[in-house]
Design a protein that fits this description.
Number of strands: 5
Shape: rod-shaped
Order of helices and strands: HHHHEEEEEH
Number of helices: 5
Strand order of the largest sheet: 1-2-3-5-4
Distance between the termini: 63 Å
Radius of gyration: 28 Å
Strand content: 15-25%
Length: 157
């Protein structure tokens, strides 16, 4: 019975640690906590401890591993909500500067890189973009940015 308890403790700990590295919203950590609690009860009972000692140990271990699991789940969900900062998706919403423009397309500088750009469909401003104008990236299609003229409030950062 002690060996089974220790095996459950190892399995449960492995599941809880895996949950902290692979956020699965508790699908691994929940059963891990249960395995730890059951393993604690079996190990303490197998070593000759009474029911009261096994229950107290199980509650303390459950609180500690449940707290660790809750922290891991909170950090995992916070990471999922974060805005993408790299790659193509990270360019959307960034501001840049027009380097050259000839309707309907031109070159813009965004985050230190020169991109081909065209006007976004949502850009209802009739004025042509000129060199030095500030723009905002609306979307990315291949290696061409769809941009619109930046509004004053978007330039204050």
């Amino acid at each position: 019975m002690t060996v089974l308890g220790v095996l459950l403790l190892v399995l449960g700990t492995t599941l809880v640690v895996t949950e902290s590295h692979v956020p699965s919203l508790g699908m691994l950590g929940g059963p891990g906590v249960l395995a730890i609690v059951l393993g604690t009860v079996l190990a303490v009972a197998g070593l000759g401890g009474g029911v009261a000692i096994a229950a107290v140990a199980a509650v303390l271990i459950a609180l500690a591993s449940g707290g660790f699991l809750g922290l891991a789940m909170r950090k995992g969900t916070a990471a999922r909500r974060r805005r993408v900062r790299t790659g193509a998706e990270g360019l959307i919403g960034r501001t840049g500067t027009v380097r050259s423009w000839g309707e309907p397309s031109g070159k813009v500088l965004v985050d230190g890189a020169l991109w081909r750009a065209r006007r976004a469909i949502s850009d209802d401003d009739g004025d042509e973009l000129r060199e030095g104008d500030h723009i905002v990236v609306e979307r990315l299609s291949g290696l061409t940015l769809a941009v619109r003229r930046a509004e004053d409030w978007e330039l204050v950062l």
